[in-house]
């Protein structure tokens, strides 16, 4: 394997393993910032050694063992309390390379959930909680997080640095909160899991359209959360949304990894088991007797697609109505953009275009690639090809995802040239 191919493989392994690594180290050290530093140290060592020695059979175990040994060395150098040093020393034996898989499987799920609840502690602002958790749990770059929130990268970087410092100063324990504290942090935890799933469902950047392992991790965490908080309708709403969206994975890309849009997907290949699980979770949310919140409303929209046997049978009028309800529950220009798409599908592209024109002056959407992409699609359907071509080209210049850029450039080429 070439050095560049090895580095790409290491990058992929890091994206998969980093959250588990940080969670395990944070449980041991009770210091999230230090845990992230040691995890990064292990990555640097891997980048130095693996191109020569080859990638280990169990790279996650190798990284965990290396990071924990670094933790031992650090504690020794810093002459921390003998009791803590002995405690960490005992723990390292449980993570020997031969049996680390069992150790990870036994507690890693709880560690990840503890990590989410720790980084979503009320001592942090809402924005800081989400940014820090996405950085540690999803391994997203500051740029990817900034694009998800449509803010400057420097803003996100500052939030993350301040958040780690605040948690350390406040000595926030690395543990699951008790019942009354759990509810205080629940909305942020749900938001983080949702954003984690979205990054896997449509990657912000890179050469892949989807990152299924992120979605699987988010769905697993959501299911665990539903067991912990069974009376919270939005927990079931989020699980329902993720179950239904996950049912489409086999049809979201072709054999070449190129995106397949929703209306072009082969619905016979959608995973019916996941759809049934999603519909059951949505029913649980409804059965709790409270108005549907943003996640449950999005799950209801996804259910409309899942229950339509063909794209032509989709109940777009109902979807448009659900987006209107979602806009009231969670006002957002992105929700309005999605509502414009639904109205276009239900009543024609001219109506959708009128709504999109109102969003062109929205500051949050200034560099959001889907705004010109959607506007270009409406213009194309209306036969205004020169304008559509310009919009698709602008969208292609804004996206950071290579696959999405290729798709948008194809849309540029599809626009007939006026004579």
From TrEMBL:
Transmembrane domains' residue ranges: none
Domain RNA polymerase sigma-70 region: 23-79
UniProt-listed GO biological process terms: DNA-templated transcription initiation
Gene Ontology molecular function: any one: sigma factor activity
InterPro entries named in the record: DUF6596, RNA_pol_sigma-70_dom, RNA_pol_sigma70_r2, RNA_pol_sigma70_r4_t2, RNA_pol_sigma_r2, RNA_pol_sigma_r3/r4-like, WH-like_DNA-bd_sf
Listed name of the protein: RNA polymerase sigma factor
Domain RNA polymerase sigma factor 70 region 4 type: 116-167
Residues of the DUF6596 domain: 185-285
């Amino acid at each position: 394997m070439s050095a560049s191919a090895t580095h790409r493989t290491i990058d992929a392994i890091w994206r998969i393993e980093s959250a588990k690594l940080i969670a395990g180290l944070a449980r041991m050290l009770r210091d999230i910032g230090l845990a992230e530093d040691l995890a990064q140290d292990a990555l640097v060592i891997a980048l130095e050694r693996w191109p020569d020695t080859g990638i280990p059979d169990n790279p996650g175990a190798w990284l965990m063992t290396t990071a924990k040994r670094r933790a031992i060395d650090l504690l020794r150098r810093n002459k921390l309390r003998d009791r803590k040093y002995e405690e960490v020393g005992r723990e390292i034996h449980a993570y020997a390379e031969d049996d680390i898989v069992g150790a990870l499987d036994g507690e890693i799920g709880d560690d990840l959930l503890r990590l989410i609840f720790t980084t979503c502690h009320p001592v942090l602002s809402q924005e800081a909680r989400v940014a820090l958790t996405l950085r540690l749990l999803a391994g997203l770059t500051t740029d990817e997080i900034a694009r998800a929130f449509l803010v400057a990268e420097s803003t996100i970087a500052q939030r993350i640095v301040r958040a780690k410092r605040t948690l350390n100063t406040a000595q926030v324990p690395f543990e699951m909160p008790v019942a009354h504290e759990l509810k205080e942090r629940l909305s942020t935890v749900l938001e983080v899991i949702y954003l984690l799933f979205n990054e896997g469902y449509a990657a912000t950047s890179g050469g892949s359209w989807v990152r299924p392992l992120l979605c699987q991790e988010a769905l697993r965490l959501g299911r665990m959360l539903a067991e912990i908080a069974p009376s919270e309708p939005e927990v079931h709403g989020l699980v329902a949304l993720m179950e239904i969206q996950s049912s489409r994975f086999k049809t979201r890309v072709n054999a070449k990894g190129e995106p397949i849009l929703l209306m072009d997907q082969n619905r016979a290949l959608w995973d019916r088991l996941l759809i049934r699980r999603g519909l059951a979770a949505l029913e649980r949310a409804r059965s709790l007797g409270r108005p549907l919140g943003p996640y449950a409303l999005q799950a209801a929209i996804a259910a409309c697609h899942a229950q339509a046997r063909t794209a032509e049978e989709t109940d777009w009028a109902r979807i448009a109505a659900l987006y209107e309800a979602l806009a009231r529950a969670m006002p957002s220009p992105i929700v309005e953009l999605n509502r414009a798409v639904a109205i276009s599908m239900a009543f024609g592209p001219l109506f959708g275009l009128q709504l999109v024109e109102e969003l062109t002056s929205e500051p949050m959407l200034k560099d959001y690639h889907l705004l010109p992409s959607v506007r270009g699609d409406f213009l194309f359907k209306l036969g205004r090809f020169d304008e559509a071509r310009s919009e698709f080209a602008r969208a292609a210049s804004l996206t950071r995802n290579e696959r999405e850029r290729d798709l948008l450039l194809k849309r540029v080429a599809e626009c007939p040239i006026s004579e």
